[in-house]
Amino acid sequence: xxxHASEPGGQPESRRDFLYLSVGLFSGVGTVLAMWPFIxxxxxxxxxxxxxxxxxxxSPIEVxxxxxxxxxxxxxxxxxxTAEEIQTAEQTPDADLPDPQSDADRVIKPEWLVVVxxxxxxxxxxxxxxxTEPRGDWNGWFCPCHGSHYDTSGRIRKGPAPENLFVPxxxxxxxxTIKIG
Length: 181
Description:
The chain is of the alpha+beta class. It has 2 domains: about 5-40; about 50-180, Rieske Iron-sulfur Protein, CATH 2.102.10. The chain has helices at about 15-40, 45-50, 85-90, and strands at about 55, 65-70, 75-80, 110-115, 140-145, 150, 155-160, 170-175, 175-180. The strands form 3 sheets. Strands 1-9-8 form a 3-stranded antiparallel β-sheet, with no helix packed on it. Strand 5 and strand 6 form a beta hairpin. The relative contact order is 0.14. The model has no long low-confidence stretch (mean pLDDT about 90).
């Protein structure tokens, strides 16, 4: 048994333990408060957060037209597909594709195709957004740098590109507005 009176300074052990615990707690809180500005500086800035999503009004786009919007500093191709383009894309057997993916897996509504407009070979921007540009052998997009051909679902059909055009996360906010990101 310990005699508290015989300890140096006459302090009981429980009081010493309390002091150690208190000093440790205050030191920990002080360290966290001192580090908080540094930790907070690692959060994304407002301009980065603003780029994380983009809302697009689809109402001015006619059937057969396409537009390009910028999302996260990348071009995004939005095409309002014709009935013929939809039918062709849906009827393409997955086995015929270098990167098999059905059209239904790439669209939310068949009329609208949304893809990142960056060739998956070397990062070029494929042609085919304007009606005067070459669209390749499958009437989708054509990358003239190395000859990649994409169909009307943004799937690679011919050329060195290893993958389909990327479909970003997007959702319909209403019938005429989508949010990308």
